[in-house]
Amino acid sequence: MNFVPLKSGKTVEGADIEAFCNEVKGQKHVYLLAGVHGDEVEGVYCLEQLFKWLKQVENIEYPIIVIPLLNVDGYRTGTRLNSHGVDLNRNLPSACWALEFTEGKYNPGPKPFSEPENLFLKKLFEKYTPSIMISFHSWKPMINFNGSCKGLAEFIATYNSYPVKSDVGHPTPGSLGNYLPQAYSAPVITLEFPVLEGETMMLKDIWKENETAMREMILSLDNFIS
Ligand SMILES: [Zn+2]
């Protein structure tokens, strides 16, 4: 399947944020997004591998937008936050957005959509309406779902055996998971891949344990989106 580059966005420091779409036309788009948190290399790597495979398959009949790395500045410096010290996954205008935060790593910014990286997402959502968002992170392995995609989360779990959760255990105001179901009725799957620890586990091992899950997710997504 051929993917064409869309007009890039810009980070705080002026780096390009790349985005690609396949050439299938449709009203709503499946989003595949990684690197919202710059230090979560595991998610970025897994989407990179999935994207390589996507370019080889031909039988996908729904529109896809791929954003391989949103927080380009944070990825370069190995930090969760963007160059303004903002958590991009707390900076979206969900109903529960709040200026207060408990820890620096959850800094939501001065107001929703204050950050250029998220303004780029906003622009894409306005132009290419989302049907579902699959966001690639790393933390405690789990498949977190927001909105009507529990069935898909459970389907993925049959392949990677990660726990399926509607709640990560702490509030996430201003996250994509809170924002997209409200703004676009688009559900969100937040994939938390394991974090690399020690010297025995490698990125390719994380991909290996998720490769089938990710491919089957793409091949069956049609059955789970409206
Ligand atoms: Zn994350």
Would you write up a description of this structure?
It contains six helices and ten strands; from the N terminus they run βββββαβααββαβαβα. Helix 1 (41-54) packs across helix 6 (203-220) and helix 4 crosses helix 6 (203-220). Strand 8, helix 4 (150-160) and strand 9 (164-165) form a beta-alpha-beta unit. The chain is globular. The chain has one domain (3-223): Aminopeptidase (3-Layer(aba) Sandwich). It has helices at 41-54, 72-77, 116-127, 150-160, 176-184, 203-220, and strands at 3-5, 9-10, 16-17, 20-22, 29-34, 64-67, 130-139, 142-146, 164-165, 188-194. The protein is of the alpha/beta class and 226 residues long. Bound molecules: zinc ion. Zinc ion (ZN) is lined by residues 36-37, 40, 137. Residues 36-37, 40, 137 line the site of zinc ion.
